[in-house]
Amino acid sequence: MTKILGISGSLRAHSYNTALLRAAQALAVPDVTLDAATLHGIPLYDGDVEQREGLPAAVTELKQRIVESDGVLLVTPEYNSGIPGVFKNAIDWLSRPSADIARVFGDRPFALVGASQGGFGTILSQNAWLSVLRKLGARHWSGGTLMVSRATQVFDENGAIRDEAISRQLGDFLRGYAAWIDGARR
Ligand code: FNR
User: Which InterPro entries match (predicted)?
Assistant: First the structure.
């Protein structure tokens, strides 16, 4: 069984990215468990707070879930052609203390998907993530891409994918990513 942790980078209740993560879970890919994590409860990074109190509980908890996973799927929105602050902020916390980076990120297989309301489906934020993952020593699966554009047309009012081609692409993406993780473990 390949254990993937998906993290949605949006806090919105009706987030398209959270809906994408839920749709991925609903696909129930054989031999893959896909757990979902949110960024709720993670405060803004503050070096004084870190020095005084250590890591916030929400960060420690997410860190532990990453460490227990075989791979991490970042489900990223795009804000102003880049990574949303809440998502980058969470990763910054997770990279503290720096002595922990290798355990949390080092060689861990990461993959990126995302949904946006614009026409380019998070291509710029996904691209911006690459340098962050490289800095943290994570491995990035580049064997597939999923960039969901025009999200208002792709999801219905309940957050389910109504575009069958996107649903198929999502399944292909997950199977490919899980096979890559699996191959690397052997
Ligand atoms: C956006 N949005 C957006 N979309 C896009 O395709 N390219 C972009 O650069 C931006 N920039 C941007 C900035 C800010 C501050 C906001 C709030 C929004 C629109 C974005 O794709 C849309 O709000 C998505 O619905 C956000 O993802 P969630 O919250 O639905 O997961």
Answer: Flavoprotein-like_sf (IPR029039), FMN_Rdtase-like_dom (IPR005025), NAD(P)H-dep_reductase (IPR050712)
ipTM rounded to 2 decimals: 0.99
CA 69 centroid distance within chain:
12
* Cα Rg of the chain, angstroms: 16
Q: How far is the CA of 99 from the centre of ligand 1 (A)?
A: 34
- Cα gap 156→23, rounded to integer Å: 12
Distance 136 CA to ligand 1 centre (A): 25
- Number of the ligand 1 atom closest to the C-alpha atom of 119: 6
Ligand 1 mutation pick, 16, 116, 122, max ligand atoms within 8 A of CB? 116
Domains and CATH numbers, the chain: 2-185 (3.40.50.360)
Give residue-wise pLDDT tens across range 5-44: 999 999 999 999 999 999 999 998 999 999 999 999 999 9
Residue 74 alpha carbon to ligand 1 centre in Å: 16
d(CA 61, CA 32): 22
Pair of tokens at residue 81: 């052609």
Residue reference for tokens 């309940």: 158
